[in-house]
Amino acid sequence: MGDALEDMLVTPVEMAAIDKDAADSGIDSFSLMRSAGLAVSAAALRLFPAGLRFVVLCGPGNNGGDGYVAAEALAESGAQVALYILGDADKLRGDAARACKGCRLAGLPVEAYEPQAGDIVVDALFGAGLARDLPGVAQTIIKRVSASRIPVLAVDLPSGIDGRSGEVRGASFTATHTVTFMAAKPGHVLMPGRQSCGTLEVFDIGIPTRLVAARASDLRINGPADWRHYSRGLDAGTHKYKRGHLAVLSGGPTSTGAARLSAAAGLVAGAGLVTLGSPPEALAANASHLTAIMLKEVGSAADLAEWLRDKRLNTFVLGPGFGVGKKARDFALMLCDRALVLDADGMSSFQQGREELFDKIAGNGGQVVMTPHEGEFARLFPEIAADAALSKIEKAQAAARLSHAVIIYKGPDTVVAAPSGRAVVNVNAPPWLATAGSGDVLAGIIGAHLAQGFPAFEAAAAAVWRHGEAGICAGRALTAERLVENIPPLA
Ligand SMILES: NC(=O)C1=CN([C@@H]2O[C@H](COP(=O)(O)OP(=O)(O)OC[C@H]3O[C@@H](n4cnc5c(N)ncnc54)[C@H](O)[C@@H]3O)[C@@H](O)[C@H]2O)[C@@H](O)CC1
Ligand SMILES: Nc1ncnc2c1ncn2[C@@H]1O[C@H](COP(=O)(O)OP(=O)(O)O)[C@@H](O)[C@H]1O
Ligand SMILES: [K+]
Description:
Elements: H1 12-24, H2 29-47, E1 53-58, H3 62-76, E2 81-85, H4 94-101, E3 107-109, E4 119-124, H5 136-148, E5 152-155, E6 177-181, H6 186-189, H7 193-196, E7 199-203, H8 209-215, E8 219-221, E9 245-249, H9 257-268, E10 273-278, H10 283-287, E11 294-297, H11 301-307, E12 315-318, H12 326-335, E13 339-342, H13 344-348, H14 354-363, E14 368-370, H15 374-380, H16 382-385, H17 392-403, E15 406-409, E16 415-417, E17 423-425, H18 438-451, H19 456-474, H20 480-485
Parallel strand pairs: 1-2, 1-4, 2-3, 4-5, 5-6, 6-7, 8-17, 9-10, 9-12, 10-11, 12-13, 13-14, 14-15
Antiparallel strand pairs: 15-16, 16-17
Helix pairs in contact: 1-8, 2-3, 2-4, 3-4, 9-18, 18-19
Bound molecules: ligand NAX, adenosine-5'-diphosphate and potassium ion (K).
Catalytic activity: (6S)-NADPHX + ADP = AMP + phosphate + NADPH + H(+); (6R)-NADHX = (6S)-NADHX; (6R)-NADPHX = (6S)-NADPHX; (6S)-NADHX + ADP = AMP + phosphate + NADH + H(+)
EC number: 4.2.1.136, 5.1.99.6
Subunit structure: Homotetramer.
């Protein structure tokens, strides 16, 4: 992992500390605000050359300060600019007060703004400092602007989006473009915030990277930098056993497809061999659909115990189409000392009695990856799911800590979290990945990575990213089968 700013995620609390560290190190904080405001005016001129009037809405804090700088720079450039102020400009403090004094425009109260065709709104009402629901007057203006469909350029964050969680605090602007500073915040990548940002520009206002990195926790946007180290190309002298043996456990005769999707994805994703373990009554159904994937009868816990005597068999996928119940529980507990992807029914089987599973995982060093979507997450971690104070990232981190497993909390903004707190948010998944069997394919890709010796966190993060890339390559009319065919090479 590097300290590259473009992949880093910084919470608003961390950003405030970075800001203070920058000031303490002798950097003039007003010069940072000036850089921020100038970046916003440059983006406005670049992105909206046909705009007739820039309407800058300034709030009571430093986000408003950036807005005053931008308004002055836009006026200086000869553009037509109108300024509207939320609250009392006389109460502004520090850099924001100085920015306001340096702005030639007279402001009107924000409630007086009536959108006109040709306007471009520059939203500098609230940014990272938004600490509670927006005041009513801000909500009214947001609704008015949204109804008028006027383009919005957001400063730092669209006002109303919580920078920590991506939640909407009362109402929020929907921006065409957002200019943020130094590093993206969780609210830019978590839903619904991500949808409100439009395109995101991260602008370097001049705070040294080392100051940002020193405060940032281990939270990043998912990308190859997080796991490239493990995805080196194939050694010419490799053989199939060196590339890892993945075992996937199938459900009964009427629900075999899900496990086969995982198995097929595992093979395409790079496992050297894949074996499907099938109950006897489903052997015929599975055999009629398999070619490169091997098939083995595994009906009972005794059969599995016998199979596990082969210690080379080190990676399993359990859950897709498997059925919820005692058999799934028994199998999962037997597999905790191998690398294990516990998906779908495998997780749901522990809605009651999860402690036994979590203790087993802890006792075996934690090479277990669990892949809950929202419903499964609520089943396995009801108290965490119900905690409204937590962001999706914080929920995934809490679940990983509690279970000792790597958690892939799925959705449009999939979060991968390790028990250590390390986490990435994935941003490359197209919405058409929401199709039956898509999760089964993901489970197989994770299994392939584990079989190839990736540590659990990297196996999970790389799989989520590859799954997203496969979705992009396959295009909109996606089926899970086509997703498997489009899994791209790793390196
Ligand atoms: N972090 C940095 O390094 C820099 C930050 N800058 C700007 O500074 C902003 C953060 O500034 P602030 O911390 O002043 O925060 P904001 O300007 O986002 O707003 C905070 C102000 O509004 C009040 N407030 C918060 N929620 C409210 C609500 N719901 N209703 C009414 N009042 C509310 C707060 O008490 C505070 O006075 C960033 O978003 C960014 O635009 C820039 O000036 C450049 C440098
Ligand atoms: N709106 C969305 N945008 C992008 N990816 C999505 C979206 N909704 C779901 N996904 C992804 O699609 C996959 C669906 O998995 P899952 O819910 O287990 O479905 P299934 O059980 O049908 O396989 C997950 O990887 C999830 O992150
Ligand atoms: K804003």
